[in-house]
Amino acid sequence: MANSLTGLTGVAKLVAVMNQLRSPGGCPWDAEQTHHSLLEYLLEESHELIDAIASGNRDDIREELGDVLLQVVFHARIAQEHETDPFDLAEIAELTANKLISRHPHVFGDETAQTAQDVEAIWHEKKKIEKNRASLLDGIPRTLPALMLATKMLKRTKHLEIPGTTALPTDFTDSLDSAERIGELLFEVVRIARAQKIDPEAALRAAIREYEVKVTAVEAKDLT
């Protein structure tokens, strides 16, 4: 094994190691893994990276980024072995690079973007065209935790005027001027929900579904 890795460094070395682990005579455990069996590890490593970033520990961030990269390389190797539709890490990287070029016409093309908001608008418009999506909400995984799902939906639709949304009193919203205050409010909402024997996650998902119906109606109206 050592000889086959001589002179290799970085990503090329990681790919070579994974290739040997998956090849005959390699590791029995690695050889039997599938896209589905690795999902729990992808989720776990992603959360560990989030924790490392939150902690600010550079050594932990470096290590956890490597663990997430390992998951990508592992899945790419499994994909390479597919009988009818194989693809590898190089093809994945090429596809991603081309996607970035397409979605940054203000850098690689003739369009102009002065602010981060302009860039975000271009990104979502390009993505909508590429994916042939009918709604701004298409492509958002509905399996996300409810709070993250609500945040993504509101971010995507921030330029739309959605009727029937609850407007909170200004003096109340002005008091929510820090992450600490927002966190306290969210925690209190959860506490109230528990006291009322209401699942806060389910309640928020129900509200999200109602919001999605309103967004769809607005988008349909804009098309007519």
UniProtKB/TrEMBL annotation:
InterPro entries listed in its UniProt record: MazG-like_dom, NTP-PPase_MazG-like_N, NTP_PyrPHydrolase_MazG
Domain NTP pyrophosphohydrolase MazG-like: 33-108
SUPFAM superfamilies found in the cross-reference section: all-alpha NTP pyrophosphatases (SSF101386)
Coiled-coil region: none
Gene Ontology molecular-function annotations: nucleoside triphosphate diphosphatase activity
GO biological process terms held by the UniProt record: dATP catabolic process; dGTP catabolic process; dTTP catabolic process; dUTP catabolic process; response to stress; TTP catabolic process; UTP catabolic process
CDD domains xrefs: NTP-PPase_MazG_Nterm (cd11528)
Pfam family, one: MazG
PANTHER family, A to Z: NUCLEOSIDE TRIPHOSPHATE PYROPHOSPHOHYDROLASE
Protein name: Unannotated protein
Organism field: freshwater metagenome
Lineage, broadest ranks: unclassified sequences, metagenomes, ecological metagenomes
